[in-house]
Design goal:
Blueprint: E1 2-5, E2 8-18, E3 21-22, E4 33-42, E5 45-59, H1 64-83, H2 89-95, H3 103-111, H4 126-130, E6 137-143, E7 147-158, E8 161-167, E9 179-184, E10 187-190, E11 195-196
Antiparallel strand pairs: 1-2, 2-3, 2-4, 4-5, 6-7, 7-8, 8-9, 9-10, 10-11
């Protein structure tokens, strides 16, 4: 999973790391952990930032919502200092303590916005999804007949439909990649009730 904003990208990588060195699948007390890398876009290519790759306390098995929240928290913490040309080594050292339930990740899940996709004051359209890259993970909200949110892994847009897969916090695994959102009355919608989706938590009953 990866998230980006402007010229800064953060991503999870799996290198087989455990609590004490290499992950030992034969040790019931060991846990395989995720490492994050930070990159900057330079002349059209992503280049890893020096001293910005750290193993965390986030398990590889963590629910995608925790993984997303962890990456979103990292992006929020490193984006501004990188844009201003500052070192983020100390900041990344602190972020290595990220885990499921970490206060930064909890704050991200509760605040209803995402740094990787600044809020739009309207429901999302087909054009918004056409701008996403295949494999990009975003958080979507709805607040019409029902209230809720889910993660969406984008695949492609075709004939008024947005294809990809989704996961809600109460789900144990992603849906299949042939799931889709659809266009209705100019907005991209979910469910049989044509509920418009937003890229931030919207006011109640907006966009119905």
């Amino acid at each position: 999973m990866e998230l980006s904003k402007d010229t800064v990208k953060v991503e999870w990588v799996e290198l087989g790391e455990g609590l004490s060195g290499d992950f030992d699948p034969n040790d019931p007390d060991d846990v395989e952990l995720l490492r994050f890398d930070v990159s900057r876009l330079v002349s059209g290519h992503w280049v890893e930032v020096r001293d910005a790759s750290y193993c965390t306390e986030m398990p590889v098995s963590a629910h995608p919502f925790w993984q997303w929240a962890g990456l979103e928290a990292i992006l929020r913490e490193v984006w501004e200092p990188l844009k201003e040309g500052h070192s983020i080594k100390r900041k990344c050292e602190e972020l290595s303590w990220l885990e499921q339930g970490h206060e930064l990740a909890v704050a991200v899940l509760n605040d209803g916005v995402q740094a990787a996709w600044p809020p739009l004051d309207r429901p999302l359209t087909i054009a918004d999804f056409e701008a996403l890259e295949r494999g990009q993970v975003v958080r979507l909200w709805y607040s019409c007949t029902n209230d809720g949110d889910f993660l969406w892994e984008h695949d492609h847009v075709d004939n008024g439909r947005v294809f990809g897969r989704f996961i809600y916090q109460e789900m144990e695994q992603w849906s299949t990649l042939d799931d889709f959102l659809y266009e209705f009355a100019g907005s991209v919608c979910r469910g049989s009730g044509a509920e418009p989706v937003w890229n931030h938590k919207p006011p109640k009953f907006r966009g119905c």
